[in-house]
Specification:
alpha/beta, Beta Polymerase, domain 2, Rossmann fold, 25 helices
């Protein structure tokens, strides 16, 4: 049986769908047995379900049948491992598991248990019915003998024992030492030999010994049990034993027809999925690392556009594999995030594997961050940064948590691409530590990394201790390429002399192609894009929430005076919406004047696509507008904006802090509205964005091929039967005389 991973899980299925497929497997098995004159009986919970419910027990999720040992062996000889398109496995063992009975698998549906990682196909158990001794006392001795050898055999597959006390653990250790003298194969064969030691054909009493659920209560008189009768199961007829009443009473008690207490109605907690098993080497996975779980949905414009460019260029180079992009948040936030009040509550809910045991280090780290922003010269600040670095390296919720998150996301990726954004920043946001952890993870898992058009934001000083951490991240051997979207000198200083950093462009300039949206022909309104009230305070500028409210109020009033219809919108950040509510209250406007926060980046894209022009504070709103031919001006609360607009060719459309005057802003906007967007400038930015990908796409393509071959070799090493099947197929296509 092939090994399955979480990557083989397709769409989630319902319990009803799983039972439907189990029923189809039962029908195929029944038809095979009738065709080949084989005897079997519904057993265990499946038989109980047939008698009491005329189908599955409502909380049950498996199928059990019993079959005489001679019929089991005949079945295996006839079927060759395949029954009606389903896979049959005989009693067998490998390094990880062992089973003394037969299993029929449906590989089109996989299941996994809660808290267990490895999925496996749904199956029906086929238990051999063995001959048993004639007397009860002999039968007990027989089962005890089998039990002792089963215990010794089971030790060979156990990694450890959780004994109640030290004496139990010592006993297990000694017993395992004794078992190891025999070895797995000898123990497995010995247990099977004892089970088959009394021939079924000549025995007066029979029963199943392969199951670990029941023991001596499975013993029944052959003349009463092994006479098939038809029982109803989910509208079908299947064979059950004539002596089912005695059998069920022995297993479930005299009141087996009564429903058990609710607490006893326990299923196997199986979660079913449609199988989505890929051929080895047919799929490649590329990690896109960035701020993909940010509330600022403009960050997703970068990731999606970069995915489009990478896939397009790989296809041009003849890559015929299915390409899957794994979006990895560099801060380690969960896929689904929620708005939670409070710094620690937010982390506990939204950050992967956040543990409350690490609260002390979290609080200390936060206090040190606040202290470093307010006090001291470089010596004091760098001392604080070194202390924070120590906490990050060893604190419960920092590096180790982030490393586990990266591993959960990037276990089977072939390449890592950092999608750029303003990650070279530590004046307000601090990304240097996660970038270092990415390099560490890549090095330990033989992965290569490229940085696509990385940007700088805010204060930057090479004397800062955090600069050393950035250098360690970008100058790692695993980093094969770095390009910049702004501040090329800064990026070069981090990347080191061995890398030739080019000034190129953000992938988001390919937004229109990546999202496949048509230009909205009915553009009338003006969009005013907001920012959180403390945005400039975070970068050391004394411009607070009240200042923003006044500025945006004046801008809106001026637009209205000049005959424009307008509305406020945000990129999704909660703080931006809070500022918007303050503006509406200040102006006495209805809630409708503030567009609801977008649920995803598609909604944000469509919102921007509906405007005739925008005045915004968010860079990727401006880029999105530019790609859609929507003129924009952007209020620059961070110098990266000014650099971007200078590169684009519209430096005057970046309004600097010193120019924050409503009339000047609206005048500049009206000029931009008349000029529109120059297609030649957009094409130039798209060419720069594509050049970045062109520079490293061959590195990705070569690495994909290397890792694909490595994965194929490993697959056939772990699954030699698959290679034998492949060789067999090749033989069948050869010429014959």
């Amino acid at each position: 049986m092939l090994k399955y991973t979480l990557d083989d899980l397709g769409e989630r299925a319902t319990p009803a769908e799983m039972k439907e497929q189990l029923l189809e497997m039962m029908e195929a098995f029944d038809a095979f047995c009738k065709e080949n004159n084989l005897t079997y009986f519904l057993s265990g919970g499946t038989l109980l379900g047939a008698i009491r419910h005329k189908g599955f027990i409502p909380w049950d999720d498996d199928v059990d049948v019993n079959m005489p040992r001679p019929d089991c062996e005949k079945m295996w000889e006839i079927c060759g491992g395949n029954i009606g398109g389903y896979t049959l496995l005989p009693p067998n063992f490998d390094d990880k598991r062992h089973a003394y009975h037969y299993k029929l698998y449906d590989t089109s549906m996989l299941v996994r248990k809660n808290m267990k990682k490895s999925p496996y196909p749904i199956f029906m158990d086929i238990f051999p019915i063995e001959g048993l001794p004639n007397t009860e006392s002999e039968n007990i001795k027989h089962f005890k003998k089998i039990g002792r050898w089963k215990y010794l055999a089971r030790l060979m597959w156990k990694k450890g024992w959780r004994g109640r006390n030290i004496f139990t653990k010592i006993f297990h250790v000694l017993a395992k030492g004794y078992a190891s003298l025999y070895g797995k194969e000898s123990l497995f064969n010995h247990v099977t030999g004892i089970m088959k030691s009394i021939p079924f054909e000549s025995a007066e009493y029979v029963g199943v010994m392969a199951t670990n659920v029941h023991t001596t209560e499975e013993r029944v008189k052959k003349s009463e049990y092994c006479v098939p009768i038809e029982v109803e199961f989910e509208g079908h007829k299947f064979p059950g034993p004539k002596g089912y009443d005695t059998y069920l009473r022995q297993l479930y008690g005299d009141h087996y027809m009564e429903l058990p207490p609710i607490a006893s109605r326990v299923s196997h907690n199986l979660i079913p999925y449609r199988a989505d098993v890929k051929e080895p080497g047919s799929v490649t996975k590329i990690a896109i690392c960035g701020l993909v779980k940010s509330e600022n949905l403009g960050e997703m414009f970068i990731a999606r556009s970069l995915e489009y460019l990478i896939e397009t260029e790989l296809r041009k180079r003849g890559c015929d594999k299915k390409i899957e992009f794994v979006e990895v948040d560099i801060l380690g936030r969960n896929d689904n995030t929620f708005r939670i009040k409070g710094y620690l509550k937010d982390k506990a809910i939204n950050y992967y594997k956040f543990r409350f045991r690490g609260i002390f280090s979290e609080v200390l780290y936060k206090k040190l961050t606040n202290f470093s922003r307010k006090h001291g010269g470089w010596f004091v600040k760098n001392t604080v940064y070194r202390l924070k670095h120590f906490i990050y390296r060893h604190g419960i919720n920092f590096e180790n948590r982030l490393y586990r998150y990266y591993h959960s996301k990037m276990r089977k990726v072939d390449f890592i691409v950092v999608d750029g954004a303003g990650l070279l920043e530590y004046s307000y946001n601090e990304y240097q530590e996660p970038l270092r952890v990415i390099s560490r993870y890549a090095k330990e898992h033989d992965l290569q990394v490229v940085y696509n058009a990385i940007g700088r934001a805010g204060e930057y000083n090479e004397k800062d201790f955090r600069h050393k951490i950035l250098k360690a991240a970008l100058q790692s051997d695993v980093v094969k390429y770095v390009s910049a979207r702004d501040s090329v000198e800064t990026v070069q200083a981090c990347a080191g002399k061995d890398k030739n950093v080019k000034l190129l462009a953000d992938a988001a300039f390919w937004l229109k192609e990546a999202y496949h949206r048509e230009i909205n022909p009915e553009r009338k309104k003006i969009g005013i894009g907001l920012v959180r009230g403390n945005s400039l305070l975070g970068y050391g500028t004394n411009f607070n929430s009240a200042c923003w409210v006044t500025l945006f109020t004046n801008i809106a009033n001026l637009l209205e005076e000049r005959g424009y219809e307008y509305e406020f919108f945000t990129n999704g950040l909660y703080g931006d919406s809070v500022l918007g509510k303050k503006i509406l209250d200040n102006m006495g406007l209805p809630d409708e004047k503030l567009v609801d926060a977008p649920e995803d980046e598609n909604v944000l894209y469509d919102t921007i696509n509906s405007y005739a022009g925008i005045i915004t504070c968010r860079m990727h709103s401006s880029i999105a507008a530019f790609t859609l031919g929507v003129p924009s001006v952007i209020l620059s609360w961070n110098d990266k904006v000014e650099k971007l607009m200078d590169i684009v060719g519209y430096p005057e459309r970046a309004i600097k802090y010193e120019q924050f005057d409503a009339e000047y802003i609206v005048d500049t906007f009206e000029k931009a509205l008349k000029e529109g967007v120059d297609d030649a400038k957009l094409d130039a930015m798209k060419a720069k964005a594509k050049e970045s990908v062109d520079d490293y796409i061959d590195i990705i393509a070569d690495e994909i091929e290397r890792r694909t071959q490595q994965r194929i070799d490993m697959y056939y090493t772990e699954n030699p039967e698959a290679e034998e099947d492949a060789d067999s197929d090749d033989d069948e296509t050869g010429d014959t005389e």
